C-alpha cells in the first residue's frame, strides 16, 4: 500500500498516516537531531564566551558603587545643586559621616576613593585620610559635623568634591563612554576633557590609521603574490604556497621576536646597512618602538591572511578572459585593469576586511615593537584592566572597539559569507 | 605551457650592457662600503662586462667559465671582506656566470610564449623579481632568528666570529639553557598540558556541531554559525577581558564552594578558555570537508542496518578525518601560540611557553628566546607538512567518492 490515497485524496505513507504529516514529522526529527548535535557547543560558547563578554560590556555603564557605599548621602544630596555655588547643608554632612563609618567598617571606602579618583584626582587620598579619622569625629555632642569634616580635610569644604560625588551617584552612567571619547560627565552634562587629558580619541584615530596603512600595504604586497600563485601551474603554485603558509603557521611570538632582532638599532638591517656603508655608525635608523616598526611587523604577520582569500578568488577567474581581451586589441594594462582586476575585487575585499579586523584588535605585536608611539587601543584596554584597574573605562573602550569590529564582521558576512572562510 | 619557443644567440650589444648594469649594481654596494660609490659602479660594471666578453669571445666553454667566475669573484670578495665576502663572492660569481649565458644564449625566452614583445618579456621578469622580493620579505625574517639562536654570546646581534663562520662563535648553549632552565621547562610542560586538552575539547564539540550544522534543515543556521565563529573575530583583548572576569568568578566558586585544588582550577580555567578560541577553526575546516561529503552514504549505511553511531564511526568519520585533524591542528596551534588570554585568565603557575617568551621579549632579553623560536619554527614546519599531506589526501578521497 505504498502509494495509497486516503478517501479525501491526500497521499498516504506506508504506515497509513497522511504523507504530509509523516514528512513534517521526519523534518522535525531531523531538525531536532541537528540542534541536539549543535547544542553542547552552542551552550558552551554562549556560557563561556558570549555571556562573559556581555557582562564585561555591562561594566561600561554599571556604576552602583557610589550609590551602594553612600546611600544616605546620595539621598540627601538630591535637593542640593552645585550650580548655586554653595556647600551642601549640615544634613548632607551628617548623612555622609554615617555612611562613611559604615563604609570604613566594611573597608569599602578606599575602593570608593579609587573609583572617584578616575574622575577627579586627589579623591583617593581624600577618602583614605578621612577614613582614618572618621571615627574620631564627635557625633554625640551635636556640634556641626560640617565644620569638623572640613577640619579633617579642606576638600570637604569644596563644592567641586560634592559635585563629583553627586554627578557619579547614578546607578547607570554614560560617564565611562564619555571618558572613552575624551569627554567627561559634569553636573552640567557632557563636556570636553581638558586639553592635557585628551589622548583616547587620538589613540582611536591612530589605531584606525595604522590598521588602514597595514591593510593597504598588505594589498600591495599580497596582490602580486596571489596573482602569481593563481597563474602558475598547480604544482609550482603549491610549492610557493608553502612559503606563504610557513609564516602563517609560525608562532606569532617567533615572528615578532624576529622583527625585534631585525629592526632594532643594533639589529640585522641596521648592521647590514652600516656594513654596506649606506649609513654611518651613529646614523642608524630608528625602526623599532615607533609606528614604522609596528606597521612593518604587522604587515608581515597579517600578509598571509590577505594572500589566501585573494588567491582563492583569483583561482576562479578563467585566464581565457584576459586572452580574449588581448585578442580584441586591449593592451596589457587595459586587459588587466578593465577585465581582470574587477573580477578580483571580491578577493581584495575579503582579504582587506579580514586583515583590518585582525589588525584593529592586535595587542601582542604593538606591545613588543610599538614602544609608546606605535601602540593600539588594545594596549590601552590592557593597561586599564591590569594596571590602572579602571575597568569601567576599559569596558567602554572595548565596547567601542567591538562595535567597529562587529560592523566589519557583518560586512564580511554580507560580502564573503562566514561559511566561505577558508584556512590553508 | 606553450610549445618550446626556439631560442637564438643574442648580440653582444645587448648582453654586455645588461651584465654590466648588474655588475655596476653590485659594485655600488661594494663601493659604498669601501668609500666611493661611483668608483664601485664603474669598476664593477667594467669587471663583469669584461668577464662576460672574455667568456663569450675567447673561452667559449660554459662549464669552465662557471668555475672561473665563481673562483675569481670569490677571491675578490675574500680580499675585500674576508670569509663572508668569500661566500657572497662565490654566490655572485655563480649568478653572473648564469646571467651571462642566460642572456647570450637567449634562454630567457625559452619558456615564454613566442609572440611576446620585448617589453612584455621585460615585464614578465620584473614581475617575477617583485614577487621574489615579497617572498623574501615573507620568509627571510625567520632566517636570522634560526642563525642567531646558535650564537655563543648572549647577544641578539651577529658577532664577528659568527660572520667569519668561526666555530668559536657558535654554540648550542641557548638550547642547553632551554632544556635545563626550570622556568622554560615548566612553561613548556604547561603548554604541552594545556594545548592538547583544549584541542580535544574543541575538536569533539566542534566536529559534532559541524555535523549538525551541515544537515539540510537547521533552524537559525546563520545565527548559530555567527556565534560559533565569533571567538575568531572578536579581538583577543576583548575576549581576554571578558573571560578574565568570568573565570575569576568561576574559579572562586570552584575553589571555595567545592574545595578544589587551586592549581587544578587554574588549569581548568585556561583549558576551557583556549578550547573556546580553537572552536571556530574546527568548525570552519570540518564544515568545509563536509561540503564534499555525500549524504547518501549515511543513508546507504542506515539502509543496511547500521545504527547512527556505527554509521558515524565506520562511514562518516573516516571520510571527514582529514578535515577533523587539520581543524585540530589549527586549534592546537591557536592554543599553543596564545598569550593574551592566558595572561589574563591564568596565574603564574599556568605560565605557558608563549607567555614566557612574551615576558622575555618585554623585560630581560635572553637569546634563549631565539632557541625556543627555532624549535617552534621546526614544530610549525612539521605541522604544516602534516596539514598539507592531509589536504592532498582529502582531495584524493573526495575525487574518489561518488557524486
Automatic annotation (TrEMBL), chain A:
What membrane topology does this protein have? Multi-pass membrane protein
Provide the primary localization. membrane
This protein's UniProt keywords = Cell membrane, Membrane, Transmembrane, Transmembrane helix, Transport
One GO cellular component term noted in the UniProt record for this chain? plasma membrane
GO biological process annotations for this chain's record? transmembrane transport
Q: From the Swiss-Prot or TrEMBL record, state where the protein is found.
A: Cell membrane
Q: Which Pfam families match?
A: BPD_transp_1
Q: Which InterPro entries does the UniProt entry name for this protein?
A: MetI-like, MetI-like_sf
Please report the stretch or stretches of sequence annotated as the ABC transmembrane type-1 domain: 204-412
* Record CDD domains: TM_PBP2 (cd06261)
Highest taxon of source: Bacteria
Regions that span the bilayer: 34-58, 208-230, 237-254, 295-318, 339-364, 391-412
Q: Which PANTHER family does the entry mention? A: ABC TRANSPORTER PERMEASE PROTEIN, INNER MEMBRANE ABC TRANSPORTER PERMEASE PROTEIN YDCU-RELATED-RELATED
Q: Which family does it belong to?
A: Belongs to the binding-protein-dependent transport system permease family. CysTW subfamily.
Per its record, how is this protein called by name? Answer: ABC transporter permease
Q: Which species is listed as the source?
A: Aliishimia ponticola
Specify the taxonomic lineage: Bacteria, Pseudomonadati, Pseudomonadota, Alphaproteobacteria, Rhodobacterales
From TrEMBL, chain B:
Its principal location? membrane
Return the Pfam families for the record: BPD_transp_1 (PF00528)
What superkingdom heads the lineage?
Bacteria
**ABC transmembrane type-1 domain residues:** 188-387
Q: What keywords sit in the KW lines?
A: Cell inner membrane, Cell membrane, Membrane, Transmembrane, Transmembrane helix, Transport
Q: Which Gene3D superfamilies match?
A: MetI-like
Output the GO biological process annotations, alphabetical, semicolon-separated.
transmembrane transport
| A GO CC term attached to the entry | plasma membrane
Q: Where in the cell is it found?
A: Cell inner membrane; Cell membrane
Transmembrane residue ranges: 12-31, 37-57, 64-81, 87-104, 125-150, 192-211, 223-247, 267-293, 319-345, 365-390
Q: What family does the database annotate?
A: Belongs to the binding-protein-dependent transport system permease family.
What name has this protein been given in UniProt? Answer: ABC transporter permease
Species name: Aliishimia ponticola
Amino acid at each position: 500500500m505504498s502509494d495509497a490515497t486516503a478517501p479525501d485524496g491526500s497521499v498516504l505513507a506506508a504506515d497509513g498516516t497522511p504523507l504530509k504529516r509523516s514528512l513534517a514529522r521526519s523534518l522535525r526529527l531531523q531538525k531536532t537531531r541537528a540542534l541536539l548535535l549543535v547544542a553542547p557547543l552552542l551552550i558552551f560558547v554562549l556560557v563561556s564566551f558570549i555571556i562573559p563578554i556581555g557582562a564585561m560590556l555591562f561594566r561600561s555603564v554599571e556604576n552602583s558603587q557610589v550609590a551602594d557605599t553612600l546611600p544616605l548621602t546620595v539621598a540627601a544630596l538630591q535637593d542640593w545643586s552645585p550650580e548655586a555655588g554653595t556647600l551642601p547643608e549640615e544634613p548632607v554632612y551628617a548623612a555622609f559621616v554615617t555612611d562613611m563609618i559604615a563604609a570604613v567598617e566594611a573597608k569599602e571606602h578606599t575602593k570608593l576613593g579609587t573609583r572617584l579618583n578616575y574622575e577627579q584626582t586627589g579623591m583617593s587620598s581624600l577618602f583614605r585620610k578621612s577614613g582614618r579619622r572618621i571615627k574620631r569625629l564627635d557625633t554625640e555632642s551635636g556640634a556641626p559635623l560640617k565644620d569638623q569634616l572640613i577640619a579633617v580635610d579642606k576638600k570637604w569644604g569644596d563644592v567641586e568634591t560634592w559635585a563629583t560625588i553627586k554627578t557619579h551617584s547614578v546607578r547607570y552612567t554614560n560617564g565611562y563612554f564619555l571618558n572613552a571619547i575624551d569627554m567627561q560627565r559634569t553636573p552640567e552634562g557632557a563636556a570636553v576633557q581638558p586639553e592635557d587629558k585628551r589622548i583616547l580619541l587620538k589613540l582611536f584615530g591612530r589605531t584606525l590609521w595604522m590598521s588602514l596603512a597595514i591593510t593597504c600595504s598588505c594589498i600591495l604586497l599580497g596582490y602580486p603574490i596571489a596573482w602569481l600563485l593563481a597563474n602558475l601551474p598547480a604544482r609550482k603554485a603549491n610549492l610557493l604556497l608553502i612559503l606563504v603558509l610557513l609564516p602563517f603557521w609560525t608562532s606569532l611570538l617567533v615572528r615578532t621576536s624576529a622583527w625585534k632582532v631585525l629592526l632594532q638599532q643594533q639589529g640585522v638591517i641596521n648592521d647590514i646597512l652600516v656594513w654596506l656603508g649606506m649609513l654611518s655608525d651613529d646614523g642608524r635608523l630608528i625602526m623599532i618602538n615607533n609606528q614604522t616598526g609596528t606597521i612593518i611587523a604587522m604587515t608581515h604577520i597579517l600578509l598571509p591572511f590577505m594572500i589566501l582569500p585573494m588567491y582563492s578568488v583569483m583561482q576562479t577567474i578563467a585566464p581565457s578572459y584576459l586572452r580574449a581581451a588581448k585578442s580584441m586589441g586591449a593592451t596589457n594594462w587595459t586587459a588587466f585593469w578593465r577585465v581582470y582586476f574587477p573580477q578580483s575585487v571580491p578577493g581584495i575585499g575579503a582579504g582587506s576586511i579580514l586583515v583590518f579586523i585582525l589588525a584593529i584588535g592586535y595587542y601582542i605585536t604593538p606591545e613588543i615593537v610599538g614602544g609608546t608611539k606605535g601602540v593600539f587601543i588594545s594596549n590601552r584596554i590592557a593597561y586599564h584592566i591590569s594596571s590602572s584597574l579602571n575597568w569601567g573605562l576599559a569596558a567602554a573602550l572595548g565596547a567601542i572597539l567591538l562595535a567597529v569590529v562587529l560592523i566589519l564582521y557583518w560586512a564580511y558576512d554580507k560580502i564573503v559569507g562566514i561559511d566561505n572562510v577558508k584556512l590553508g | 605551457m606553450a610549445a618550446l619557443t626556439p631560442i637564438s644567440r643574442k648580440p653582444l650589444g645587448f648582453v654586455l650592457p645588461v651584465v654590466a648594469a648588474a655588475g655596476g649594481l653590485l659594485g655600488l654596494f661594494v663601493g659604498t662600503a669601501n668609500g666611493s660609490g661611483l668608483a664601485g659602479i664603474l669598476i664593477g660594471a667594467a669587471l663583469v662586462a669584461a668577464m662576460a666578453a672574455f667568456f663569450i669571445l675567447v673561452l667559449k666553454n660554459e662549464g669552465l667559465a662557471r668555475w672561473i667566475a665563481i673562483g675569481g669573484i670569490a677571491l675578490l670578495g675574500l680580499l675585500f671582506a674576508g670569509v663572508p665576502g668569500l661566500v657572497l663572492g662565490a654566490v655572485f660569481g655563480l649568478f653572473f656566470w648564469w646571467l651571462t649565458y642566460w642572456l647570450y644564449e637567449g634562454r630567457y625566452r625559452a619558456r615564454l610564449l613566442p609572440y611576446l614583445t620585448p617589453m612584455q618579456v621585460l615585464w614578465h621578469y620584473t614581475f617575477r623579481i617583485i614577487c621574489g622580493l615579497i617572498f623574501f620579505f615573507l620568509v627571510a625574517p625567520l632566517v636570522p632568528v634560526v642563525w642567531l639562536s646558535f650564537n655563543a654570546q648572549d647577544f641578539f646581534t651577529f658577532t664577528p666570529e659568527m660572520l667569519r663562520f668561526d666555530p668559536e662563535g657558535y654554540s648550542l648553549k641557548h638550547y642547553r639553557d632551554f632544556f635545563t632552565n626550570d622556568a622554560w621547562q615548566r612553561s613548556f610542560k604547561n603548554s604541552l598540558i594545556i594545548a592538547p586538552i583544549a584541542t580535544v575539547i574543541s575538536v569533539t564539540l566542534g566536529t559534532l556541531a559541524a555535523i549538525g550544522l551541515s544537515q539540510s534543515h537547521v533552524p537559525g543556521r546563520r545565527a548559530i554559525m555567527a556565534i560559533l565563529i565569533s571567538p575568531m573575530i572578536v579581538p583577543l583583548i576583548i575576549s581576554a577581558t571578558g573571560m578574565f572576569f568570568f573565570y575569576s568568578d568561576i574559579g572562586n566558586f570552584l575553589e571555595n564552594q567545592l574545595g578544589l585544588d587551586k592549581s587544578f582550577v587554574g588549569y581548568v580555567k585556561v583549558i576551557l578558555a583556549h578550547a573556546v578560541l580553537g572552536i571556530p577553526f574546527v568548525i570552519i575546516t570540518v564544515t568545509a570537508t563536509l561540503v564534499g561529503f555525500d549524504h547518501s552514504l549515511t543513508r546507504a549505511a542506515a539502509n543496511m542496518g547500521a545504527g547512527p553511531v556505527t554509521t558515524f564511526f565506520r562511514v562518516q568519520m573516516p571520510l571527514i578525518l582529514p578535515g577533523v585533524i587539520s581543524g585540530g591542528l589549527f586549534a592546537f596551534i591557536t592554543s599553543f601560540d596564545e598569550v593574551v588570554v592566558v595572561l589574563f585568565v591564568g596565574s603564574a603557575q599556568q605560565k605557558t611557553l608563549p607567555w614566557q617568551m612574551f615576558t622575555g621579549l618585554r623585560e630581560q632579553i635572553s637569546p634563549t628566546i631565539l632557541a625556543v623560536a627555532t624549535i617552534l619554527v621546526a614544530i610549525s614546519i612539521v605541522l604544516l607538512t602534516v596539514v598539507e599531506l592531509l589536504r592532498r589526501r582529502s582531495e584524493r578521497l573526495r575525487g574518489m567518492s561518488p557524486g
